[in-house]
Design goal:
- The structure is a single chain.
- By secondary structure, this protein is α/β, with parallel strands linked by helices.
- It folds into two domains: 227 residues, 3-Layer(aba) Sandwich (Rossmann fold); 144 residues, Response regulator (Rossmann fold).
- Helix content is 39%, strand content 14%.
- The protein contains 13 helices and 16 strands.
- β9, α10 and β10 form a beta-alpha-beta unit.
- α3 runs parallel beside α12.
- About 26% of the residues have low confidence.
Length: 504
């Protein structure tokens, strides 16, 4: 009996094996095909051996993994590029998919007279992989890629690369050139890029370099979007994209006035920057019917600075008034001077770094702490280090909203492994702007163009530093937020505008 049971188990096992074997060889629809397929795998780095990607119709399709020699022609994406540059390709598809998801969630179009152009341009982004249909465009990017300011230059170059991936314009060729932060090398870099076919110049960064490049670009009728803050170089073919004080002064003083702070004094450096801030305030005060400001010139030397601020705050007069008040209180006599009646409620301080700290502490030393007199600043205070200064606690200043660039900073850090330099956003926005203008002019005129009319569109453009537009004189105008130093942090207390409509 036991032998019969064992025999029956063997028979059952053999039958089951035959059934399984029959199933695996079956060709029914719900079963796996017997022909094996190799899984698609992205290349580990950009090489010129990557086969072109095509769609169902056999047409080339843009992919971040595609060889630069096959499509985009971006010269700094070759095999000889340093590793930190090459690795951006491996992350590009993730960035593109994230952008597409965001754009599909909130689509928008090119701006009209009431709207501001948006970066990226969402109407074209759903066709991201059809971008090879766009004509080739060459744009120079002049940066200090070596020398003392190499870290800044490399960060700006990487930000520009990130913008290219986000914009999805594969025929857009960026031509980076090293200015080495000198005027002579900047001129050579510009000429080299123009010889290679550049249709627009982005950069340089420093004023001396901009001055050297401007006449070369003008000779070839090429416009230049410079990253400098030297407003004297604007005009003609030169557009200045750096953070300028004029809009900052108007924004912060207008906000202060709306909060009841109408008596504003200025503690300014004896420099072109200080003069520009004073002139901008007086111009605004004249137009708004405000009183002209009392102005003191701040000199960095400790002894002279102390005397300047002692006189500026009328410290001796206030001490005398306080003594008179004590005396009158003791005798019961009336007094005519109140020590609280200061000539100003707020002080505008276009000073940065250590000068801002020193001046703020001197104000506190002479009994004008941050709770007695509001400190107002310009974009020079867009500095995390100043937020921890107790003498500046509660201070207000006008600058781009950090909330707008937070996504950029996160993606940049994920991709390159470090925090971007503050000026890297200029390179991102300038590159995105160039792509927007090239696409828009091609769709409207049949060819990419970077002419003055396009650059000075009164609607402006929306970048990661907020909305901006170029005036006819070549200066940039920005929509800024009001920020506040709050116990070591920087917070937005009045958001930036989303359109220039209110100032047209």
């Amino acid at each position: 009996m036991l032998e019969m049971q064992v025999m029956m188990k063997k028979i059952l096992i053999i039958v089951c094996l035959f059934i399984v074997a029959g199933c695996t060889s079956s060709q029914k629809q719900w079963e796996v095909e017997s022909t094996p397929k190799t899984a698609e795998q992205a290349p580990s780095r950009l090489t010129r051996s990557v086969p072109p990607v095509v769609n169902a119709q056999g047409q080339p399709v843009y992919t971040p993994y595609q060889s630069p020699g096959q499509d985009a022609g971006i010269s700094h994406y070759d095999e000889s590029a340093p590793p930190d540059t090459r690795k951006s390709a491996a992350y590009a598809d993730q960035l593109a998919q994230r952008r597409l998801a965001q754009q599909q969630a909130s689509p928008s179009t090119f701006g009209n007279i009431q709207e501001t152009h948006q970066f990226p341009v969402q109407e074209s982004q759903p066709q991201l992989y059809d971008s090879p249909a766009l004509p080739p465009v060459k744009v120079a990017l002049l940066l200090p890629l070596s020398g003392e300011h190499a870290d800044l230059g490399q960060a700006m170059l990487q930000a520009a690369q990130l913008a290219l991936f986000d914009m999805g314009y594969s025929a857009f060729e960026l031509i980076p050139r090293d200015t080495k932060a000198t005027s002579q090398n900047a001129a050579q870099a510009a000429q080299s890029a123009i010889d290679d076919g550049a249709q627009l110049i982005l950069g340089p960064v420093f004023a001396g370099s901009v001055a050297a490049v401007k006449p070369i670009a003008a000779r070839y009728n090429i416009n230049m979007v410079a990253f400098s803050t030297d407003w004297s170089l604007a005009g003609g073919n030169s557009f200045i994209m750096g953070f300028l004080p004029f809009t900052q002064v108007e924004r912060v003083t207008t906000y202060a006035a709306s909060q009841g702070l109408n008596k504003i004094a200025i503690l300014a450096p004896n420099s072109d920057y200080g003069n520009a801030v004073v002139a901008a305030y007086n111009s605004l005060a004249y137009r708004a019917g405000m009183g002209t400001a009392e102005v003191a010139r701040y000199i960095g030397e400790d002894s002279e600075a102390s005397v300047t601020i002692r006189n500026f705050t009328r410290y001796d007069e206030r001490v005398q008034a306080q003594e008179e008040r004590k005396l009158s209180a003791a005798t019961g006599a009336a007094h005519t001077v109140s020590p609280e009646d200061l000539p100003f409620q707020a002080v505008l301080m276009p000073l940065g770094g250590d000068q801002a700290r020193s001046a703020a502490n001197l104000l506190s030393y002479y009994d004008l702490g941050p709770h007695e007199v509001k400190r107002l600043g310009t974009g020079l205070w867009d500095d995390r280090g100043l937020a921890t200064e107790p003498a500046l606690d509660g201070a207000w200043f006008a600058a781009p909203s950090p909330e707008l660039r937070r996504d950029f900073e996160t993606r940049y850090r994920d991709l390159y492994g470090n925090r971007p330099e503050r000026l890297a956003t200029l390179a991102y926005d300038a590159t995105a702007l160039a792509a927007v203008l090239a696409k828009k002019s091609y769709y409207e005129q049949g060819r990419p163009s970077f002419d003055r009319t396009a650059l000075t569109n009164q609607n402006g453009f929306a970048g990661i530093d907020g909305i901006f537009r170029f005036r006819q004189d070549g200066l940039i105008e920005r929509g800024l937020a009001i920020l506040e130093f709050d116990h070591g942090t920087i917070k937005v207390i009045d958001p930036p505008p989303s359109t220039f409509q209110h100032v047209n």
